[in-house]
């Protein structure tokens, strides 16, 4: 913990909107926040798993395709109506959709990946800011990736949209800090969720260590407990007592 951290910050009674909250990292963060007494509004296209998890956590689920700006606005409105406001926006929905460039370029896959991973975060920020302002401040945490900070060979389009999210967050951080809204990015290396199901073998062959989802949750909580803004937190597998080693961009 550094001098700017807020280790005693309580999340009880806080309201969190989590995109991609039905599975993987979003679902794990939802469990953790709900366990600490927060109200969670899960927003996802996976209605079945989202509804079941919301029920389990005594939260709420809304079907939300983050490619549609109106869906994000409706999700925030649902959080305000159901729980009285919004304190945390975790803009986490994302896909890894490999497409090559030059010969095997798939324009539909490209547009889908950019629309979910980049446009979805932009629309999410736009929807969340008025509600956070109405509350007197709060947190926006976007899930980017290690691929947005350093070169990874597997998916150049993923690297492009995740680097754009890091750039967005860096610009927004100082802009919104004066209104007590902290905007930061969570940048995991590879983590054990469905998203890497198709690439796990390649990753393991290439010697990449794979994070437990619990490591990513710890990093999310550390961001939430910090006073930083416009920062990208690089989450890498390390010793159990030191799950992340870099804060901000390398170099
Ligand atoms: P996941 O596949 O388990 O979860 C992704 C969730 O996003 C799913 O619930 C899915 O239904 C939802 N989603 C997909 N398209 C959507 C849309 N259009 N609108 C709303 N929701 C949508 O994978 P995950 O690893 O938990 O991914 C969460 C985030 O973490 C993503 O942004 C991903 O890029 C990022 N990330 C993952 C890893 C990793 O190795 N797992 C590493 C770095 C970054």
What does the secondary structure layout of this molecule look like, with pairings?
Elements: E1 15-19, H1 24-35, E2 39-44, H2 47-56, E3 60-63, H3 69-83, E4 88-91, H4 107-134, E5 138-143, H5 156-176, E6 181-188, H6 200-205, H7 213-224, E7 232-235, E8 246-247
Parallel strand pairs: 1-2, 1-4, 2-3, 4-5, 5-6, 6-7
Antiparallel strand pairs: 7-8
Helix pairs in contact: 1-7, 3-4, 4-5
What can you see in these coordinates?
The radius of gyration is 17 Å and the shape is globular. Helix 1 packs across helix 7, helix 3 runs parallel beside helix 4 and helix 4 packs parallel to helix 5. Strands 3-2-1-4-5-6-7-8 form an eight-stranded mixed sheet, sandwiched between helices. The chain has a single domain, classed as Rossmann fold. The C terminus is likely disordered. By secondary structure, the protein is α/β, with parallel strands linked by helices. Nicotinamide-adenine-dinucleotide binds next to helix 1. It comes from Thermomonospora cellulosilytica. It holds the Pfam family adh_short. Keywords: Oxidoreductase.
If strands are numbered along the chain, what order do they take across the biggest sheet?
3-2-1-4-5-6-7-8
**Rg, Å, rounded:** 17 Å
Order of helices and strands: EHEHEHEHEHEHHEE
Strand portion, in percent?
15-25%
Ligands in the model, by name, code or SMILES, are: nicotinamide-adenine-dinucleotide
Portion of residues within helices: 40-55%
Domain module count: 1
CATH superfamily: NAD(P)-binding Rossmann-like Domain
CATH class: Alpha Beta
Please, what is the average pLDDT?
89
Major pleated sheet: 8 strands, mixed
Shape: globular
